[in-house]
């Protein structure tokens, strides 16, 4: 038995296609992880099936809005509410959307990193 692990950087449109493929193939959503950088968030979506663990990284500028995947993977709503509330990731149509009431926190979006100067987001390999 050998575990398979991948990490691939993709754009958001490609991620949506991958999410549909994974759901149809019987994968489960293992986690969605967010990390804040100045002017953007890095999101890693992880899917598992048997001993396969696949990870897809997307770079999302702070001002960008992305779609939910909770319609295909209902458990995504917890990860998405967390990313919205803690990192300021703008996500459309989370179901249910806790309207920034998932956590009791002292300040809104505590991990969000605003742009201090002009920052250009560049994908790996460019």
Give keywords.
alpha/beta, 6 strands, about 130 residues, single chain, 4-stranded mixed β-sheet, 2 helices
Layout of secondary structure:
Blueprint: E1 4-9, H1 12-24, E2 28-37, E3 40-49, E4 52-61, E5 65-67, H2 76-87, E6 90-92
Parallel strand pairs: 1-4, 5-6
Antiparallel strand pairs: 2-3, 3-4
Describe the protein in words.
This protein has a four-stranded mixed beta sheet with strand order 1-4-3-2, with helices on one face. The chain has a two-stranded parallel ribbon with strand order 5-6. The chain has helices at about 10-25, 75-85; strands at about 5-10, 30-35, 40-50, 50-60, 65, 90. The chain is globular. With about 130 residues, the protein is an alpha/beta fold. The longest helix has 13 residues, at about 10-25. It contains two helices and six strands, in the order E-H-E-E-E-E-H-E.
Q: Are there runs of 5+ residues with pLDDT below 50, and where?
A: none
Please summarize the sheet with the most strands.
Answer: 4 strands, mixed
Tally the beta strands: 6
Shape: globular
Percent helix range:
10-25%
Structural class: alpha/beta
Short description:
The protein has 126 residues and is α/β, with parallel strands linked by helices.
């Amino acid at each position: 038995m050998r575990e398979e692990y991948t990490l691939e950087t993709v754009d958001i449109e490609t991620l949506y296609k991958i999410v549909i493929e994974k759901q149809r193939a019987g994968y489960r959503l293992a986690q969605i992880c967010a990390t804040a950088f100045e002017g953007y968030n890095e999101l890693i979506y992880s899917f598992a099936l048997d001993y396969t663990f696949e990870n897809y990284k997307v770079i999302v500028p702070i001002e960008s809005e992305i779609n939910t995947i909770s319609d295909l993977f209902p458990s995504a709503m917890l990860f998405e509410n967390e990313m919205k509330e803690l990192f300021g990731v703008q996500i459309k149509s989370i179901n249910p959307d806790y309207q920034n009431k998932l956590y009791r926190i002292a300040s809104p979006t505590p991990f969000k990193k605003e742009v201090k100067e002009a920052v250009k987001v560049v994908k790996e390999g460019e």
